[in-house]
Design goal:
Layout (H helix, E strand, L loop, with lengths): L11 E2 L23 H5 L2 E2 L6 E5 L2 H4 L7 E18 L10 E21 L3 H8 L5 E10 L2 E9 L13 H10 L1 E2 L2 E2 H15 L4 H10 L2 H4 L1
Parallel strand pairs: 3-7
Antiparallel strand pairs: 1-2, 3-5, 4-5, 6-7, 8-9
Helix pairs in contact: 4-6, 5-6
Bound molecules: succinic acid.
Succinic acid binds next to helix 2 and strand 5.
Length: 221
C-alpha cells in the first residue's frame, strides 16, 4: 500500500451534535443546502491526521488546483458517476445551472477516478470549490492489486439544494451544450472529464454517451 512513513490515516467521526456523525457512506445526513462549506468543516476530525486520501471522480481528476503528496488511480465500489448535479457556481449560473458529476448508489457498480493524498489544510480550498451541495463522506478506496485505504469523497446526494436529477443522455447533452459559468463552459467540463477518464483507462458509458452527443452538434441542437 502506498502509505509513506508519515502517513497517518485514522479519520475519527466528529462527536459534535452535527451532521458530522454521519460521515460514512450509507449514513444519511440532513439534507444539504446549496452551500455545504460550513457543514463539511465539521464532518471529519483531522486532529493529528497528517494526510488523507481524497477520491476525485469529476473535475477533481483533471483540475488539480490544490497541493498533494501523491496520487494514484483508484476505484470505489457500489457507486456510479452521473451528471445529475447542478452547478450554479462553476459551470453554470444561478439562473442557468450547468450539469456536473455526482455519485449515485448502484449495486455492483464501480467508479474509477484519481485519489490524492493531501494534508488536511488542503480542504480549506477544496471545501469551497465543492461547496455547491457536495458533502464529504468516508469510504474505501481500492487501488488495485489488493491495495486499499480509507479515504474521503465529495458526493452530492439527491436531497441537496443544487440537485437536478435524472434525465436522458440526449437531454443532458443539450443542457450541457447551453450552460457556462465562471469556470468555463459546461461542455469543456464534460469533454475534459471524458478525456481524463480515457487517460485513466476508465470506462464510463454514461459520460461517454453524453460526450458523443456533444461532439455531434446536430444531436444537441
Ligand atoms: C469530484 O470531482 O470528485 C467531485 C465533482 C466535481 O468537482 O466535478
Amino acid at each position: 500500500m502506498a502509505t509513506g512513513p508519515n502517513f497517518i490515516f485514522e479519520l475519527r467521526m466528529n462527536r459534535e451534535p452535527t451532521a458530522a456523525r454521519h460521515d460514512a457512506i450509507g449514513e444519511r445526513p440532513a439534507p444539504a443546502g446549496r452551500d455545504t462549506t460550513a457543514v463539511n468543516r465539521g464532518r471529519q476530525d483531522f486532529t493529528n491526521v497528517e494526510s488523507v486520501w481524497l477520491f476525485g471522480y469529476g473535475s477533481l481528476i483533471y483540475k488539480v488546483d490544490f497541493p498533494f503528496l501523491e496520487r494514484r488511480r483508484a476505484t470505489i465500489h457500489g457507486w456510479s458517476r452521473r451528471l445529475w448535479q447542478g452547478s450554479h457556481d462553476h459551470r453554470g449560473t444561478p439562473e442557468q445551472p450547468g450539469r456536473v458529476a455526482t455519485l449515485v448508489p448502484e449495486q455492483g457498480a464501480a467508479c474509477t477516478g484519481m485519489a490524492y493524498r493531501v494534508a488536511p489544510p488542503a480542504f480549506e480550498h477544496i471545501d469551497r470549490r465543492e461547496k455547491n451541495g457536495y458533502l464529504r463522506f468516508a469510504t474505501t478506496l481500492d487501488f488495485g492489486a489488493g491495495n486499499a485505504s480509507e479515504g474521503l469523497v465529495y458526493i452530492a446526494l439527491e436531497d441537496n439544494g443544487a440537485w437536478l436529477g435524472c434525465a436522458t443522455e440526449a437531454q443532458i447533452a443539450r443542457h450541457i451544450a447551453a450552460a457556462a459559468g465562471p469556470s468555463g463552459t459546461n461542455s469543456d467540463y464534460l469533454l475534459r472529464l471524458a478525456a481524463a477518464l480515457r487517460e485513466l483507462g476508465a470506462d464510463d458509458p454514461h459520460v461517454f454517451a453524453v460526450e458523443a452527443r456533444l461532439r455531434r452538434p446536430l444531436d444537441v441542437g
